[in-house]
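Reopening this one. Same input as before:
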Amino acid sequence: MKRIVWKAQAAAFYCLTFGAAMVPAAIFDRFASGIGHLISFILFNRRKILFDNLRRALPFMEHHPLWSPPCGDVRNLATETFENMGRSLVEVCRLYHGQGEEVVAGIELRGREHFEAARAKGRGMICLSGHCGNWELMALAIGRLLGEGAVIANQQKNPFFNEMVERMRMRYHSRVIYKKGAFRRMLAELRRGHLIGLLADQADFPAQGVLIDFMGRKAWASKAPVQIARKSGAPLVPVFIHREGGRHVITFYPEHLLGDDLSEEGTGKEIQALSRYVEDYVVAHPAQWYWVHRRWKRAEGLV
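Same output, byte for byte:
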């Protein structure tokens, strides 16, 4: 019975995403914005999290040198955030069903010299990012344009859903490494000279994370990027995607060079430094970050 339910879920997912992928270009913006508003309505609890996160982060953002929006209106930022989520979702549907080649072809790459310098070391590459812009598009585009790679993700309970998504991703020379037992597979990919994508902006558990400052508040962050970089010797390159007008821009930053302090304190300092890249992105593009996750959970009241 469970297999029948799983197959039905996978079939429904396929049909829904296929329908979204077939939306004519002439009505794409209106349709995608409508999907964003629908997401806002359906995910009521997530909307509350988004508003709370925005309100509490706004004082920090307004005093940051990269802050440039015309106003700090939380409601407007929330609306823009959900509209961006809708556009990203429809774009990913098009990509998964082979209809998004023009989106990939239209991406501008900035800082490619930093990517090439890291790749020249021949040790693979750890591309560090966050849930910023259309991060799924970025992962697929890098695989298609710059070299075979893999991203880290949670495995779904539905095996048919996993198989379908993996097949779709392979079209763009991108694979999924599931978090359970991921460390060894990531090291193996790096030894082959491949790219590994890490989204390192979600809350970790205290037992395996490190406490940092993020947007003016304490937050738990994963040690994984530094641990993997130290173990593999692979260069750690921050990379982000953002919307700019009607196109996407992927920006590579210079390799983040790790210090010699291998202590727990040293690791914490490196993770804090890496978090600044995400922080700067959020301030510069406040409606293009995934505000609906509980980034500061388990850290409330800690100093």
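So the earlier flakiness isn't reproducible anymore. For the record, The chain has a mean pLDDT of 88.
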